[in-house]
């Protein structure tokens, strides 16, 4: 793949190359209600960026917005989503529906959660690959089978010829999820959005699947956005993390820095919730007047002891360490 040459440099120094995926000031609304507010992120070739947060924080909404797959009523109301293409960066927000769809599978790939819900129960695995590849203009049956076999091998399936003839109900959960990964990578997209790809799998299968995904990302120079609430997996596989709370990025930075020295109280509570984790809550930033266990629902904006001005202004993302940022009050002396 053409983007593999920048893998090492980009993964070790995200500022060293142009990102494969760049999101700026993303706002998503359902009806008139904003649910994602001013999200910025970058993912480089050969890098896995983790997006973490509790259920309902907007993680999947961010991923669907990038793919143009928001459900009815959802829309990107502000911001830019740039992806690197062979013809140069393309803004998916200003692009037409036809142009956005043209990037799906070619530049952007999706690994959804719940593999069995993503597979048609009356189609074999091979038939799924035929649909994907024919949409990219590949019609030759032998070529389709060859590419499907190769893709399944890259996804960690060691007997692809047998699996190609199976229906979804004939596969285990782990096998079905690997098939979904194979379908996502068969067109060699430069950017992968992996939305809770291991949520329904046991720990052993989770590790095997993510080991294969990580190897592929590093070897082929793919840029991967991994969406999850599993801090253990994120700590092991991601170079950098973004923490989303009520649709706002409240902390970002190198994974080890964010998880071992959390600054925002929500991040500290996430870390403290992991069994056996050492709580860093005592060292976390708190809005003036907030109790030790309190996190104001509007913490990303609130800077007043009585929370009287919640929502009037957003606290800034301030640098709190090397490439480590968190929303803190400029009045707070750390």
The name of the CATH topology of the largest domain is Rossmann fold
Number of helices: 12
Unreliable residue runs: 1-10, 279-294
Radius of gyration, in Å, reads: 21 Å
CATH domain class of the largest domain: Alpha Beta
For the record, the CATH architecture of the largest domain stands as 3-Layer(aba) Sandwich
Number of domains: 2
Number of strands: 12
Spatial order of strands in the largest sheet: 6-7-8-3-9-10-12-11
Assembly status: single chain
The amount of helix comes to 25-40%
Q: What proportion strand?
A: 15-25%
What is the distance, rounded to the nearest whole angstrom, between the alpha carbons of the first and last residues? 46 Å
Main β-sheet: number of strands, strand sense, barrel status? 8 strands, mixed
The rough form would be described as globular
Look at the structure and give the mean pLDDT.
Answer: 83
CATH superfamily of the largest domain: P-loop containing nucleotide triphosphate hydrolases
Helix and strand pattern: HEEEHEEHEHHHHHEHEHEEHHEE
Indicate the structural class: alpha/beta
